[in-house]
Fold:
Amino acid sequence: MSPKWRGGRPAKFGPAARDQICRIAACKPTELGLPFTTWSLAKLVDYLAEHAWIRVSTETVRKILRQEGVSWQATKTWKASKDPDFIPKKTRILDLYDHPPADGRVICVDEFGPLNLQPRPGRGWFPRGRPGRLRATYTRTKGIRHMFAALDLASGQMFYRFRDRKRWPQFLDFCKQLRRRFPAGKLYLVCDNYGPHGKAEVLTWCAANDIELVHTPTNASWLNWIECEFTAVRYFTLDGSDYPSHAAQETAIAGYLRWRNRHCHPKRHFAVNSKIRRPDYLPNVA
Structure:
């Protein structure tokens, strides 16, 4: 018996066939002249047999895709930034994150909402086949609310205020609240390009009170660190909810933020090893 023989049937599909299966699976069916936009395993198997001369079962295709790191995922949207000052703005924000100025404090600011009253789908642990249920119909008769929020990178804490509107007077009032909370040193407020953030009255007051508004590039709000925190707020307070009133909804959000602030840590290491850190990163490439 050969000492190199270890039993078992040799692999039926070599690297070339496996690579071809993965490449075809990654293509859109319409690009291959097919009259549908999404693959199923059965349709993929039929195409491989007819056009790639690879006869394989659906289970083998599933295993090959999994072994090669190809998984079934939802399509996501991406809006590229066409800001001509993308690179200097991005560099400025990343430098503030990596090397906070000794003369002040870096705070990420944004609005969360609109907060309306409606049943929101979510996930949870339930007996098999018996998921939690929410009412399917609703009417929006109680208006909307907005939350102004700020993430202090030095402590990791979040501060917030609920308002009926999110126009420049409300944003200016929130800036004043932050100035009262941190009376000493310069404040660097990272914010997006929403109109009220660039209002003349806001800019004038901030300049007179040692506050610098650091704007993210157009269509690049993902550079604002607070967006990550908003994802958690939405997941832990809104998903799977059906609040009867704005007061109940705001109480739940406030309770979560108080819990979060008791367990927070200083924010460091933003987007480590991300492609946005590369000097040749192009803003119009997803």
Observations:
- The chain has a mean pLDDT of 90.
- The chain has two domains: 15-67, 86-277.
